[in-house]
């Protein structure tokens, strides 16, 4: 009778414990779901609210989530038409790549695994030791002989205490190892990802949005790292505990184990099916988040244009629409995870009920001791806790694998044009003669639109060739091809007789070509460092010399902090002319043999243009120069002028030769008259 009393007390305790456990598990789940939905409102966590939440999920709201919001989202104004988000089927998690990042830190990995296993094994032992203590307590609850009780309880209690201490030491150890592993892998992945992005062809940036790239570098890497850590620690520990405790259960009572494990296969099958569905939803959700980031990124980085056109509301509207789509997908994901979690809980609770039912019966027919029933219940609870943990981990695995697939996709992208490798011409013999021979070119993003058709042009060493022509006729394209931003489709471009596709691109860009375009981009640092960007090893004196050559010095000395003046993001605190002159100084610091001036003064007013033009004229002296021109003033010092129409040269000659034609071309709309 007494034994039965102890047992029922224990069972009651265990039931309470289990209910609390369920509640906590649910709390964690709701918290995680709220986090994943980026939900800002606080979620009430009482059991009653949990029930409401469950009802909410399974009621009409679910229907609304799937159909209502999705339908609302169909009407939208978007800037993302043609936006290349990667479709699900293109994205596969690359396990080899994971191994590549894991291998260098295998020591931390093994240490973390061993630590987590040790914790799991200790956790498996604890119910057995607890069983010993319960049996002693049960034996002495009748006799009440304190002295003998204290003597007998001492050993099992000390064993349990040492087990608890060992468990906490190993816990601290494996978490530390895992932290090293996760952080180092994330560091390597992040740097490789950034390196891969920086090495991509310019065509890649014509297609991808900055927001998407930044998203992969930040939130995807973060998601991947945290889910990797969780899977290793939680997943490994939970799996070991499930296996260990299952063995303990069989040893304690095979009949009870059979009852509790009857429904496992059904759960595994349902879980796998739901899993694959959720993975796909997760990938779509992440791709959609990228889209909303891309909209925000463009609006913030072009805030002056947005303000000038009073487009704040429209930008907000576009952002809301993209964010809402992400919300719908994330809610769908939350619903899926919720259903999965709910099903898992039902299974786990049924297991406990079956154990209590069967255990009570075996106790009543003296086939089980109170200690054994206690150990059995504790082991079932450990299994239940572990299964609950695995079901929670499931959501994180889904997100982590989707994030990993997207990160590895960028890392695995091989650029068509490597940045380094190829011939380097000796500087002593370098003349700087450029020749375009029968060049045919179409941009990779629009292969059907041929921009240059059998384009031939020779720029003699030390001479300036100016290309003029109407807008959209391919002038800047000529400059971009010389910079090797793109490869020609046919024909060749040579430097001193060598095909530039055979030359080392980095050497060419660092030592041969100086490129200045219409919109000079400065970095958010000092004027000194912006100029030094042209040649990082240049001394301060060399920087100032280049600045003097580019007419920068005259305005910099007027600034209170001189060359240490910060220019603001993209140089917003400077005038257009000042920015342009800094860009010229930056290019001149390289002492390039060939200058490419792509409408370098067309954005300036006449006064600034004159100052910048003087700087450019000085810079051109003794160098080969390709000048893309919009204005007559830009070409007045050119040795040869080329008139370009629809990618073909229609006129070519000196100022004198083109005198009459020039007036004709500049006074009329060139595009309308070309080719006539
Ligand atoms: N990155 C790109 N991808 C696809 N097409 C492009 C790209 N850049 C330019 N184009 C197209 O190539 C054609 C030539 O453009 P390009 O910039 O060379 O003209 P341009 O003569 O320099 O014009 P402008 O004087 O207005 O700068 C245009 O039709 C343009 O739309």
From TrEMBL:
It is found in: Mitochondrion inner membrane. GO terms for molecular function: ABC-type oligopeptide transporter activity; ATP binding; ATP hydrolysis activity. It holds the Pfam family ABC_membrane. GO terms for biological process: oligopeptide export from mitochondrion; potassium ion transport. The chain crosses the membrane at residues 106-126, 157-175, 234-252, 258-278, 346-366. It is a multi-pass membrane protein. Residues 434-671 form the ABC transporter domain. Keywords: ATP-binding, Ion transport, Membrane, Mitochondrion, Mitochondrion inner membrane, Nucleotide-binding, Potassium, Potassium transport, Transit peptide, Transmembrane, Transmembrane helix, Transport. SUPFAM superfamilies: ABC transporter transmembrane region (SSF90123), P-loop containing nucleoside triphosphate hydrolases (SSF52540). InterPro entries: AAA+_ATPase, ABC1_TM_dom, ABC1_TM_sf, ABC_transporter-like_ATP-bd, ABC_transporter-like_CS, P-loop_NTPase, Type_1_exporter. GO terms for cellular component: mitochondrial inner membrane. Residues 110-399 form the ABC transmembrane type-1 domain. Belongs to the ABC transporter superfamily. ABCB family. Multidrug resistance exporter (TC 3.A.1.201) subfamily. This is Mitochondrial potassium channel ATP-binding subunit. It comes from Photinus pyralis (Common eastern firefly). The lineage of its organism: Eukaryota, Metazoa, Ecdysozoa, Arthropoda, Hexapoda.
């Amino acid at each position: 009778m007494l034994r039965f009393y102890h047992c029922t007390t224990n069972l009651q305790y265990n039931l309470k414990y289990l209910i609390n456990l369920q509640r906590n598990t649910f709390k964690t789940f709701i918290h995680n779901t709220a986090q994943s939905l980026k939900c800002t409102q606080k979620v009430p966590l009482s059991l009653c609210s949990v029930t409401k939440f469950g009802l909410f999920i399974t009621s009409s709201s679910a229907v609304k989530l799937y159909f209502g919001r999705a339908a609302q989202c169909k009407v939208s104004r978007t800037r993302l038409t043609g936006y290349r988000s990667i479709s699900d089927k293109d994205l596969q998690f690359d396990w080899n790549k994971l191994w590549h990042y894991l291998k260098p830190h295998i020591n931390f990995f093994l240490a973390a695994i061993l630590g987590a296993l040790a914790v799991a094994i200790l956790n498996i032992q604890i119910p057995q030791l607890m069983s010993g203590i319960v049996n002693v307590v049960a034996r002495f609850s009748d006799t009440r002989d304190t002295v003998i009780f204290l003597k007998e309880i001492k050993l099992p209690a000390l064993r349990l205490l040492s087990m608890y201490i060992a468990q906490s030491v190993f816990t601290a150890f494996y978490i530390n190892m895992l932290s090293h592993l996760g952080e180092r892998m994330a560091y390597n992945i992040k740097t490789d990802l950034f390196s891969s992005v920086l090495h991509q062809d310019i065509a890649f940036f014509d297609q991808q949005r900055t927001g998407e790239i930044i998203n992969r570098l930040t939130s995807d890497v973060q998601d991947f790292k945290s889910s990797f850590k969780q899977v290793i620690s939680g997943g490994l520990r939970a799996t070991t505990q499930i296996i260990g405790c299952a063995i303990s259960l069989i040893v304690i009572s095979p009949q009870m184990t059979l009852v509790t494990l009857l429904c496992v296969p059904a759960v595994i099958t349902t879980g796998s099916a739901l899993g694959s569905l959720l993975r796909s939803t997760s990938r779509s959700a992440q791709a959609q988040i990228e889209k909303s980031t891309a909209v925000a990124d463009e609006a913030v980085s072009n805030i002056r244009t947005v303000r000038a056109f009073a487009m704040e509301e429209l930008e907000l509207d576009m952002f809301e629409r993209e964010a809402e789509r992400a919300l719908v997908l994330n809610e769908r994901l939350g619903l899926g995870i919720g259903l999965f979690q709910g099903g898992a809980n039902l299974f786990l609770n049924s297991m406990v009920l079956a154990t209590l039912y069967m255990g009570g019966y075996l106790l009543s027919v003296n086939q089980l001791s109170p200690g054994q029933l206690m150990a059995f219940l504790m082991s079932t609870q450990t299994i239940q806790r572990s299964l609950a943990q695995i079901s929670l981990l499931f959501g994180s695995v889904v997100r982590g694998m989707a994030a990993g697939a997207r990160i590895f996709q960028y890392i695995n992208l091989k650029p068509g044009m490597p940045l380094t490798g190829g011939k380097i011409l000796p500087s002593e013999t370098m003349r700087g003669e450029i020749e375009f021979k029968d060049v045919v070119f179409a941009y990779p993003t629009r292969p059907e639109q041929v921009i240059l058709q059998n384009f031939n042009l020779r720029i003699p060493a030390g001479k300036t060739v100016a290309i003029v022509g109407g807008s959209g006729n391919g002038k800047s394209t000529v400059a971009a091809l010389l910079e090797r931003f793109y490869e020609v489709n046919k024909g060749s471009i040579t430097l001193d007789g060598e095909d530039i596709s055979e030359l080392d691109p980095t050497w060419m860009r660092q030592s041969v070509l100086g490129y200045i375009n219409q919109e000079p981009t400065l970095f958010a640092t000092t004027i000194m460092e912006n100029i030094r960007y042209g040649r990082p090893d240049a001394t301060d004196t060399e920087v100032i010399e280049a600045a003097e050559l580019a007419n920068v010095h005259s305005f910099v000395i007027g600034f209170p902090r001189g060359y240490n003046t910060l220019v603001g993001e993209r140089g917003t605190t400077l005038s257009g002319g000042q920015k342009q002159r800094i860009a010229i100084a930056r290019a001149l610091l390289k002492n390039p043999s060939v200058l490419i001036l792509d409408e370098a003064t067309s954005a300036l007013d006449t006064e600034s243009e004159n100052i910048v033009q003087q700087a450019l004229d000085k810079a051109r002296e003794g160098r080969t120069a390709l000048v893309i021109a919009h204005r007559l003033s830009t070409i007045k010092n050119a040795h040869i002028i080329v008139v370009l129409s629809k990618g073909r040269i229609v006129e070519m000659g000196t100022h004198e030769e083109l005198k009459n034609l020039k007036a004709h071309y500049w006074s009329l709309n060139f595009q309308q008259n070309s080719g006539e």
